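Researcher: Sequence recovery benchmark, item below. Answer with residues only.
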């Protein structure tokens, strides 16, 4: 990078322009591109580093190639200029609960046989678009685990102590992004994903996956099952 642009300071920009274009109201597709970093006056002064390998799906080269074709605008389209998703990628929608159950069965086949296998749980995930959907799917999935459930509740406090009685129940209904719900239901062998960087030196970072083993009133016993600290046992309050 040209050091004169940022007065000797190092700055980095990252992202996939095929996925993270600007959203501009009442504008055309070409306007999204013209307002992006690609057309900035600093673009020609930047050093470009490109990632070329899909680390998450490298064991499925056909799917990786499919994503690249879409990103490069090379995937075939129908008469409406739309890309048709292959049938083997699609779960037919009939009714909400029935279709969700079908999605679970496809994602976690023979769940009651393999639910205690950490690899079976941690290497599969269901993505969705809104936090409300995440909570609904998590509630449905946690009920599939055997054993008794343990529920941990948050302590919600208002800034002004005098408002606590009036707004406490209302605060319980709020689900802010990157925070667990008011009532967190866990069962043995279920998966936890950390949303905060608690202790990087112990492997407890944002995105770390853990398998739950035991629960006390204020302590969760679990094993890390991702990254360099895989199989490390932790007890967290």
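Model:
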């Amino acid at each position: 990078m040209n050091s004169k642009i940022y007065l000797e300071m190092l700055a980095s920009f990252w992202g996939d322009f095929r996925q993270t274009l600007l959203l501009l109201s009442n504008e055309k597709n070409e306007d999204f591109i013209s307002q992006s970093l690609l057309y900035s006056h600093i673009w020609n002064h930047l050093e470009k580093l490109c990632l070329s390998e899909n680390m998450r799906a490298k064991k499925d080269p056909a799917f990786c190639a499919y994503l690249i074709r879409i990103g490069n605008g090379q995937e075939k389209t129908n008469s409406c200029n739309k890309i048709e998703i292959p049938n083997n990628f699609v779960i037919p929608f009939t009714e909400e609960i029935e279709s969700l159950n079908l999605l679970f069965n496809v994602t976690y086949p023979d769940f009651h046989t393999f639910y205690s296998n950490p690899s079976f749980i941690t290497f599969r995930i269901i993505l969705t678009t809104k936090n409300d959907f995440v909570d609904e799917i998590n509630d449905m999935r946690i009920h599939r685990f055997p054993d008794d459930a343990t529920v941990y509740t948050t302590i919600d406090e208002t800034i002004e102590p005098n408002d606590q009685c009036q707004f406490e129940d209302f605060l319980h209904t709020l689900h802010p992004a990157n925070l667990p719900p008011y009532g967190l239901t866990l069962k043995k062998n279920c998966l936890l994903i950390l949303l905060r960087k608690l202790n990087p030196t112990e492997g407890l970072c944002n995105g770390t996956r853990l398998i739950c083993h035991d629960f006390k009133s204020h302590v969760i016993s679990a094993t890390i099952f991702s990254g360099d600290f895989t199989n490390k046992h932790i007890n967290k309050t």
